Amino acid sequence: MTDLAGLWALDPKVVFLNHGSFGACPREVLAHQAALRSEMEAEPVRFLSRELDERLDAARAALAGFLGADADDLAFVTNATSGVNAVVRSLAFAAGDELLTTDHAYNACRNALDFAAARSGARVVVAAVPFPVASPDAVLEAVLARVTPRTRLALLDHVTSPTGLVWPIERLIAALAERDIDVLVDGAHAPGMVPLNLATLGATYYSGNCHKWLCAPKGSAFLWVRRDRQADVRPLTISHGANMPRPGRSRFRVEFDWTGTSDPTAWMTVPRAIAYVGALLPGGWPAVMARNRALALEARRRLCAAAGTPAPCPDDMIGSLASVILPDGPAAEIGWRRPDPLQRRLFEAWGIEVPVMSWPAPPRRLVRVSAQLYNSGEDSARLAGALAKELAAERGGAG
């Protein structure tokens, strides 16, 4: 742990190396959200009816400044998967249309594609990207090799969830745009991990989380939609905004800003999270990203040595996440909410929270380490030592 660790509410008895799953929110940011909730509960009508628009506008403006976006192109959603679903379920596909993604896609978002394809008669096409991967060029080649004249939409990660790779997203978008293919970017991990400028990125749609690397509260995420496509994209819940236009506000903003009574304070807390975390190092957010990346690379070197496997990608494809290939594990019964026994042992015996994932399918598996300001090199050294001992025990048991 670092001197900054006390600024988070994490259990000090746990070595927390899994920021990537749900994030973790600093105490001061949580306190700001609690104050907002107190205001809301003191006078709910004033807060949710008379003041909501201005409060959301201020939060959206701060987020837009961080993302290099126009605030009018941003909508708040509860998580990146919801944003992906809003886009995919708003678009009309025809039988024979192809929806392109990769085998590194986040399972929940892949499920959204499968749902849309089954409903319309479209087909999901999966580009197999090698892992280990030699270079960003290999990603580009694998994706473009699966493009056909029937490709309507590409769902691509900015940072892959299972394998922790930073895709060459600008190059992918540009190459697909030359082929008149819209790109929906699953940017769940990107904001706060890698530099991001939505105005110049070139995507058609971009969904990202604020609760991960920006360290905002859970329930804070955004959907960015290119201006010419906003009329086509509707929220998952249709509410008053569908037939109650507001002067000076697009239907896109009106519909997404109100989908029914809920707690909007996570969205309103995003500006405080951006300002607070960015002020923790003298160099601001560039320094935060650089320090976390250096920690992730250091952790990856240690874990590769412990597992006896090579680094599965070049250093320039790593942000604040890094996945390392492990020896094969159990052949079945491993999946969402059913962790590998190795993950349970690392937590129960060693006090280390880190995901061990079956990817692309059992028995193959990965360990994925996250790096955030509350982490230190000592954390990854402890994980590497524990991992080496547990893998040795597995080999001994197998023999």
Question: Quick summary of this structure?
Answer:
The chain is α/β, with parallel strands linked by helices and 399 residues long. It is 42% helix and 14% strand. Strands 2-8-7-6-5-3-4 form a 7-stranded mixed sheet, sandwiched between helices.
Task: Indicate the topology.
Elements: E1 15-16, H1 19-22, H2 27-42, H3 44-50, H4 52-67, E2 74-77, H5 80-90, E3 98-102, H6 107-120, E4 123-127, H7 136-144, E5 151-157, H8 169-177, E6 182-187, H9 198-201, E7 205-209, E8 221-225, H10 251-257, H11 265-268, H12 270-278, H13 284-307, E9 321-326, H14 341-350, E10 352-353, E11 356-358, E12 365-370, H15 377-398
Parallel strand pairs: 1-10, 3-4, 3-5, 5-6, 6-7
Antiparallel strand pairs: 2-8, 7-8, 9-12, 11-12
Explain this structure to me?
The chain folds into two domains: 5-17 and 284-398, Aspartate Aminotransferase, domain 1; 28-275, Aspartate Aminotransferase, domain 2. The two termini are 37 Å apart. With 399 residues, the protein is of the alpha/beta class. The protein has helices at residues 19-22, 27-42, 44-50, 52-67, 80-90, 107-120, 136-144, 169-177, 198-201, 251-257, 265-268, 270-278, 284-307, 341-350, 377-398, and strands spanning 15-16, 74-77, 98-102, 123-127, 151-157, 182-187, 205-209, 221-225, 321-326, 352-353, 356-358, 365-370. The model has no long low-confidence stretch (mean pLDDT 95). The strands form three sheets. A seven-stranded mixed β-sheet has the order 2-8-7-6-5-3-4, with helices on both faces. The chain has a three-stranded antiparallel β-sheet with strand order 9-12-11, with helices on one face. A two-stranded parallel ribbon has the order 1-10.
